[in-house]
Write a structure and sequence with these properties.
The protein is of the alpha/beta class. The chain contains six helices and eleven strands. Bound molecules: zinc ion.
C-alpha cells in the first residue's frame, strides 16, 4: 500500500508542515542518488502526505546542486500521485505583489546546469509538455487559497533561472518584456520529471519581493524580505492543508494514464495535458 498519496515540496521558508499526525521519516535511496532530505510522512486532513524540504532542512543545497531526479523518484517510491510544490519567487509584474500567491500554468527555461530527465542511456522517449502543470490541481489549489484567505492567482508563466545569483536589470527587463510573471530557480525541473514519472504536479509560487526591475527593489531591507518569507510560509501551510482537504475531488490519476510511449505519441498529436482525459 502507498505510504503517501500527496507529496509536498517546501521551498525557501517552508521546511515543515505543522499539524501532521502519525509522523514517520523515510530516508530513501534512489538509482539517481540521495534526495535532499528524509521525507516526512504523516496524516493531514485524513490523507497520507509526504513532505520534502527541497533544499534540505537547514537550507543546505543550492538550486543548481539539487538532485531533482532523486527528489521526484523518492515521491514515486512512496506511492505519491500528486505533488504540490511550494516555492518563493520574485515578481516580474507590478500586479503580483509580495504576499500574493501565483499558480502558474506555464514555465520558461533559463537554466543551464541541470539534469532534468529520467531518460537517456539507451532509453529514448519524449513527453508532451505543452501544459506543464495539472489543470485539476491548479483548480484545487486556487480554491484552497480562497478558503485560506490568501490571494491565489490562477495562471501565469514561471521563469526558471539558473542562479544562485539573482538577475541583472537587463535580464529582468527582458523577462518582463516577454510577459513572464514570476521568477524562481527550481520548479521547472520538478515539473518535467514529475511528468516523466507520471505524477500530477502544481506549483504554488509565493511572491517574496519584486525582482530587480522594480524601482523600489534596492530600498527593500533583508528584514522586510524575511518578514514576508515567514508570513508566506504561514499562509502556505494553510493553503497546503486546504489543498489536501480538497483532495476528495481528485478525479484522475496520472498512474492510470497510458504509458509514457503512448503519451509521447499523443504529444505529437498535440495532447497530453494530464487533466485533459
Ligand atoms: Zn493531473
Amino acid at each position: 500500500m502507498a505510504q503517501a498519496e500527496i507529496g509536498i515540496i517546501g521551498g525557501s521558508g517552508l521546511y515543515s508542515i505543522p499539524g501532521l499526525s502519525k509522523v514517520k521519516e523515510a530516508r530513501l535511496r534512489t538509482p539517481f542518488g540521495a534526495p535532499s532530505d528524509a521525507y516526512v510522512c504523516g496524516m493531514l486532513e485524513g490523507r497520507k502526505v509526504a513532505f520534502l524540504a527541497r533544499h534540505g532542512r537547514g537550507h543546505r543545497i543550492l538550486p543548481s546542486e539539487l538532485n531533482f531526479r532523486a527528489n521526484i523518484h523518492g515521491f514515486k517510491q512512496l506511492g505519491v500521485e500528486r505533488i504540490v510544490s511550494v516555492s518563493a519567487v520574485g515578481s516580474l509584474k507590478e500586479e503580483h505583489r509580495p504576499l500574493e500567491f501565483v499558480i502558474p500554468d506555464q514555465f520558461f527555461d533559463r537554466t543551464r546546469h541541470r539534469v532534468d530527465t529520467f531518460f537517456g542511456s539507451g532509453v529514448v522517449a519524449h513527453i508532451a509538455f505543452a501544459d506543464p502543470v495539472c489543470g485539476e490541481l491548479v483548480g484545487i489549489v486556487a480554491a484552497a487559497c480562497r478558503k485560506a484567505g490568501v490571494v491565489g492567482k490562477r495562471g501565469g508563466t514561471y521563469l526558471c533561472m539558473e542562479g544562485p545569483q539573482f538577475s541583472t536589470k537587463a535580464e529582468s527587463n527582458v523577462y518582463r518584456g516577454l510577459g513572464m510573471d514570476v521568477i524562481g530557480m527550481t520548479n521547472l525541473q520538478e515539473a518535467k520529471l514529475a511528468r516523466e514519472a507520471e505524477l500530477c504536479y502544481v506549483t504554488v509560487a509565493m511572491v517574496t519581493d519584486y525582482d530587480c526591475w522594480h524601482p523600489h527593489h534596492d530600498s527593500v531591507t533583508v528584514d522586510q524580505i524575511v518578514a514576508v518569507l515567514l508570513k508566506n510560509a504561514e499562509n502556505a501551510c494553510r493553503v497546503v492543508r486546504e489543498t489536501v482537504a480538497g483532495g476528495s475531488t481528485f478525479s484522475h490519476s496520472q498512474n492510470e494514464k497510458p504509458p509514457i510511449a503512448e503519451l509521447a505519441e499523443k504529444g505529437r498529436r498535440g495532447r497530453g495535458d494530464c487533466s485533459s482525459s
